[in-house]
Amino acid sequence: MFFGRDKQTMPEPDQALPGRSEAVPVQPAHLVLGTPLDGPVPEGHEVAVFGLGCFWGAERFYWQLPGVHTTAVGYAGGYTPNPLYEEVCTGKTGHNEVVRVVYDPAIVTYDDVLKIFWEVHDPTQFMRQGNDIGTQYRSEIYVYSEEQREAAEASKRKYQDALSARGFGEIETTIVDAPTFYFAEEYHQQYLHRNPMGYCNHGFCQVSYD
After folding, report:
1. C-alpha closest to that of 71 among 178, 158, 183
2. Which of 19, 61, 96, 145 has its CA 20 to 30 A from that of 109?
3. Across the strands, what pairs with 140?
4. Domains of the chain
5. pTM of this prediction?
């Protein structure tokens, strides 16, 4: 049963909410970049997906990065098909709040995209970021290829060295194969563009690995 369940304990698959067969509607264009949120990935572009706490603040760092074609927030890594935000927040879907980044590797490298991941959240906390606590805030990198996995593992080691040299703790981030990505509701997309004074607990940098 869910009553009294620890916010930082993943549900079992047979405990997850049932979800639904239809996905939430996806807005046609990015409010800042003007590019499609959904649809075919442009030729020569790549996709990266990250969980790094509340997705509102994290998305803004990526849409500001030169070479990024589009960004979107959504849910990944859980069991419930086509989850809704209110369901994810219960911890009963198993999903993580994530940011999807479509980028042109001829302009911005995967290492550059990873650098933002490490430096705008605290990877030494797995299922919390500041006052945000729960399975939906876990620190995870979702990889689409063996090349991405190797690059993510290498950057994790590099950033751990930088953290350790400054006396910080061990990285708790996990690196896993990319699961199904579900787009979040329209009002979450580019939230800090819609609400410039909205909540965001991202942006701190414990160390840089440059």
Report:
1. 183
2. 96
3. 51, 174
4. 26-194 (3.30.1060.10)
5. 0.95
Reading the block at residue 81, the tokens are 């098909």
Spell 71-108 as b/e; 16+ CB within 10 A means b.
bbbbbbbbbbbbbbbebbebbbbbbbbbbbbbbeeeeb
**Annotated catalytic, 205?**
no
Looking at the chain, the number of H-run helices and the number of E-run strands are 5, 8
Q: How far apart are CA 108 and CA 73, in angstroms?
A: 20
User: 59 and 84 in contact (C-beta within 8 Å)?
Assistant: no
Helices 110-119 and 146-165, interaxial angle, to 10°? 40
**How would you list the strands of the sheet with 174-177, edge to edge?**
174-177, 140-143, 46-51, 96-103, 68-76, 182-183
What is 153-175 written as a DSSP string?
HHHHHHHHHHHHHTT------EE
Give me the average pLDDT of each 10-residue run along the chain (210 residues). Answer: 66 96 96 97 98 95 97 98 97 98 98 96 92 95 98 97 94 98 98 88 71
Cβ–Cβ under 8 Å, residues 174 and 139: yes
Residues sharing a CB contact under 8 Å with residue 62, sequence separation 6 or more, in sequence order: 68, 71, 99, 101, 113, 116
- The DSSP symbol for 87 reads H
